[in-house]
Amino acid sequence: MFPRKALMGAVALATLAGATVAHADSPEVFRVGILGGENEADSLRNYQCLADKLPAAIGVKEVKLFPATDYDGVIQGLLGGTLDYAELGASGYAKIYLAKADAVEPILTTVQTDGATGYYSIMVARKDSGIKTLADMKGKKLGFADPDSTSGYLIPVTSLPKDIGNVAVKDYFGETGFGGGHENLVLAVKDGKFDAGTTFGSGVGSFDEGYTSGNLHKMVSKGMIDMKDFNEVWRSPLIPNGPIVVRTAIDANMKAKFKQFMVDLPKSDPACFSAIQGGDFTSYTEVTPAFYQPIIDARKAQIGG
């Protein structure tokens, strides 16, 4: 079950964005949705550089940031036309595509430091729990990050059965639940509320640093966790990096300027690029809906929408 606080956060975001729906196509304001999973203050701080730079780059008077406490708040804002841009996980994009295929356009995704355009779902457990393998997790309590998270839910429930003897997740683990976002999920594992939990990372670089990017890396960078306290229990197959999406209906000239701004960002402002991405990446590369078709198909089969 979703925590009530997270649900209220989604409602609050939709209400806030909805208050300006009459001006959704106005070139005066550009609305940025920020996925939940990290605390709001950190999210706003990381995205402030975009709010400062985008007005001049794309020709608007103001950029407004709308952080959500869960994924669905941003998803509904994009579906409702009250947000203009967000960076989504692949499963979140699939949810929008299955509801309204032309609501948004995926235009770019990130490239890892090793050249990959993917990342991993990573299951972690406390080192002092003695849990090192999936066999150790049989009958134990597994935590997921968010129902609309690719790495925190969709990929684990579709990929884990192959690694646990073709048994359904609900039948192998003693109990499952949601942590209310990636950051909260890892903290819940740290606090012993779950025996293990699924979050995400690049899988590149040092485990002690939480790899080069992803939720674990961000939490290490903020001093929230020490990876020496955790074991990596399981890693998924490579997952497509989530897309930067823009609302299809926005002005084509603005869309082109925004895309170019983002393509240039890794070189024009590396610190801003790193802040909004939460780690080390090399660049952006173009994507189309076809890049996400396997995730769209997986979501349709597993969740239905």
From TrEMBL:
Q: Which GO terms describe its cellular component?
A: ATP-binding cassette (ABC) transporter complex
Q: Which UniProt keywords apply?
A: Signal
Pfam families xrefs: Phosphonate-bd (PF12974)
Q: Which family does it belong to?
A: Belongs to the phosphate/phosphite/phosphonate binding protein family.
Q: Which residues cross the membrane?
A: none
**GO biological process terms held by the UniProt record:** organic phosphonate transport; transmembrane transport
Signal sequence, start to end: 1-24
Identify this protein by name: Phosphonate ABC transporter substrate-binding protein
Does this UniProt record's set of keywords contain Signal? yes
